[in-house]
Design brief:
By secondary structure, the chain is an alpha+beta fold. It has a domain at about 5-175: N-terminal domain of mukB, CATH 3.40.1140. The chain contains 14 helices and six strands. The mean pLDDT is about 75. Keywords: Coiled coil, Endonuclease, Hydrolase, Nuclease.
Amino acid sequence: MSNARFRPTRAGIINLWDYRDQEFSFADGRLVLRGPNGSGKTKALEVLFPFVFDGRIEPRRLNPFAGEERTMKSNLLYRGQDSAHSYVWMEFCRGSLEDPESVTVGIGMRATRTNDKVTRWYFVADGRVGVDFSLIGNDDRPLTKKQLAEQLGSDSITDRPLDYRTAIDARMFGLGVQRYDQLINLILTLRRPQLAKNLDPKGLSQALTDGLRPLDDQLVLEAARSFSDMEEVGRALEGLAAADQAAQSFIGVYTKYLRQQSRGEIEQVSTRLAAVTRGVAAMDESSLAQTRSREARAAAEERFNQAEQALENARANVEALQRSSAYEGKQQLDDLAQAVSTLKLSTEQQADKSRKAQAALAQRGDEADKAASSVKRAAEALSRAEDELQAAAEDAGIVWTPLPDGSRSDQITAAVRGHAEERDGDVRVVRTALATVEKAATERTRAENSSRRGQELLEASKAAVLEGEAAVELARSQCASGLRAWWTDHSSLFSAVGADTSLFEVLDAALAEVGDEDAPALSAVLTEHTEAGTETLRERRREAEAEISASHASIAALKSERKAVSAEHDDAPPAFHARTDNRSDLGGA
């Protein structure tokens, strides 16, 4: 069986009082001393426990039953010698019984009759007395400090009680300096005379209380402040939660409003894009219809030219026949009759064609009238074009000689073609520019129409924007009023986390920027400026809760210990069988 804690296994007293070399053995960490009065039970406790743990030799700490005259010097020189060396020691073990971990602590003392001071040295060493090292030399005398240092090493020996207590606590207990001293004081309190006689629970409780270190006033003040801070933190957290809920509600409403406004703007843009698409489609259809009309006109002009050519050919054939010699000769009358018949048939056919041609001619006449009008307009346009051509030629650096009045079109054409051959590239540029101008004019007309419609839509949009801005300003004004009222109601809560009126100014500035693209959310601004204080409050609350839990645990442990003491589970040792008299009024154990 093994144990993780150190337990006392042996203790010893060497050359002190009436003990020459006395060893005491513990059973499972317990020691029972029995014997008649004067047998040395009290003296053994006096020089062993708790003296071995604190090293202090004040008479009242060594023996609560004795007076100030029972000093440690008297214990060392008990047999009347002039000087003496003495040791008290205690052995602790933990772990398995076969190979335990052993630690021995002890105190060496030297006293002389001529000096009232008792010289002490202390040691904490791994190992066991009589096994790993010895406190008695070969001459059967206790070792001096120097001899002990040669065995254990100077690092294991100290002259200061405080260092000795610190070394014991560090090696075996790990309580800390204050708790270790508190434990020694509690042990001394429990050793008061007649403590178990006529046991009074209240008196025992008071004795235990006296044995504890008084609480530090600063610690009590901090605990009280922690309770107060917890209430303030609770109120601050409730206020922050309410503020967060209000901010979230406002953000939800304002987000819905912005979403509706954006949807309306998007629908207006979509309507404008649809109108532009329809206009482009109509323009493409008009261009296609114009191209088909030009092709039909060119085909009609070609058919008219072919009909005129056929009529000229027929007239030429008739004139040729009338001028021929066969027509005048008698001998050729028959042939001519046949030819006439043939020509008659041909004439009828040609007449039929002529009628058709006349009809076509009438139609073409109308078209010719239209063409004449077009020619007239073309002549006027030609005149204007000639002027423009002359101006363009001058602009292009071409020397242009005006033709005389009455010049034929072929002359004009030849002149133009001649100049055109000289500036063919420039003409192409001019034609391209003219086409661009025509297209630009069309585009300008369409753009003016679109601009007019866009202006109307713009005016409507401006009106809608003004209305929306008015609604936004109204909403912002209402939100600002709500924010101011909220701050008035909750400013005291934020003062608990170190926030002042600057927080309200920051929130008011953030509210003024709501709706912008990069505007921060009010909840984010509030969190950013209160996060540090809130975290501090939470940390203080956690610390206070931890302190409260520790206090509750300590109170519960003390109550449990008090209950165990009150229950009196440990029986008193039986009376010595050789003593039959009543000893209740006598002193001693």
